[in-house]
What we know:
Distance between the termini: 83 Å
Helix content: 55-70%
Number of strands: 4
Largest sheet: 4 strands, antiparallel
Amino acid sequence: MIVANVINLSFDLTSVLSFTVSPLEMVLRGTLMYWFLFVVFRFILRRDVGSLGISDFLFVVILGDAAQNGMIGSATSATDSMVLIATLVFWSYMLDYMSFRFPVIERFTAAPRLCLVRDGKIQRRNMRREFITDEELNAQIRQQGVEDIRMVKRMYLEADGEMSLIQQESARAAP
C-alpha cells in the first residue's frame, strides 16, 4: 500500500495528446517567429553563423528560449509542440526548396559574398560593415597558410560566414 502511494504511475493521456491551443494559432505563431529569426540571422548576424564562439552560442540559446515563449504561448501538450515543430521544419524545408528552384529567392535567402581583401589591399568599408577587426582578418589569413597580406589576391566573407582566400599567382608558384 505504501509503495502504491509513493509510485503513482497513473496519468491522464488526454492531457498529453490533446490540444491546449488552437493548431492554427500554433502554425501562425511558429510562422511569425520563424520569419523573424530568419531575418535576424540573415541580415544582422551574418558573420557569426560560420564560426560560433562561446558568446555566440550563448546568444543562440537565449534567443531560442525567448523565441519559445512567443511561439508556444500557453500551450502545454506534446501535440501542441509537434504542430509547432512541424511548422518550423516546413518553413526551413520550403526555403531550401524554393532557393534551389528559384534564383531570385536564393538571392534573398543567401547573403552575397563580400570582398575583404582585393589585390593585397584591405577593403575597410566592407570590414566595418561586418565588424571584422584587423586581428580577425590577419588570423584568417594565417590559418590559410599565407604570411603576408600582399600575397592575397582576394579574400571573401562567404554567405555561410566562413572566409575564403585566393592567393596571388606569384605566391602559389613559390615553393
